[in-house]
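hey m, so remember when u said the tokens were messed up on ur end? i reran from scratch. heres the input so u can diff it against urs
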Amino acid sequence: MQPAAKLAAVRLVEAFGTWPAGQAGPAHGAARATALGVPAARAARLARQTGSLTPAADEAVVQVIDAQYGGILTDSASVLVVCAQTTRTGGTTRTGGTVRHGGTTVDVRLSKGARGWAVTALHPATPGPPVSPDAAARAVLGDSRIELSPGSAADVRSGRVHDSVLRAMTALAGPYRISVSVVRSGHPLDVFGTTRPSDHPRGRAFDVWRINGRRVVDPATPRSLITGFMRAAAAAGSYNVGGPVLLSGGAADQFFSDATHHDHVHIGFLT
């Protein structure tokens, strides 16, 4: 819908989340942002907002898994940049020290001006510490047909995701292979552009960006695959299924489509 907005968000997340030895910290991050053309004062402010994107480490490399809309309006946007990240701490060579594989999701806010889309704020995910998983969470975490982004997996491990969401993931993973981008953290608190609370931060929704290995946003992905999946999500108990196709039938307002959901399927629950 607005690819320049996504590109601006991804480039900045890559700049903040990747650094070589000796280049960790907000000052270096701000310098990398400035090199992309971000004004120095804004770059310094954004560097202080990186949170889980900049864990303590000597080196880091971010790989962007997906960039989906958290909301898109005429002159403002939320782009949810879903990341995997590998870090190294300690050691004297690039192969020494402790290597960790993690990642996060960053809600990148942008505004559109005369020069195009510019990042105005970063809201990295804060999933909370892991707890002992219950049966529903263990089923999701152990299902090879459910691909969880690092941030989504952390949400499930935090114990803050409703069982209705977890049971639906498991049910959908029977007929489909699903790639989950966002569950609870790293999503706007309110439905973008409104004051209506989103189901995501309350642990009552999840987004799917790929079905059976096919990206929802890809025009080559069969519409029948997406519509069949959306109807299956409704059958799994979702009261609010959104995607790139507006479906008929179902309960009142059960299905919806808009520009924000051009690139993923949203699956929400009342409880």
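this time it looks ok to me. The first strand starts at residue 59 and ends at 72. if urs says something different then somethings off w ur setup not the seq
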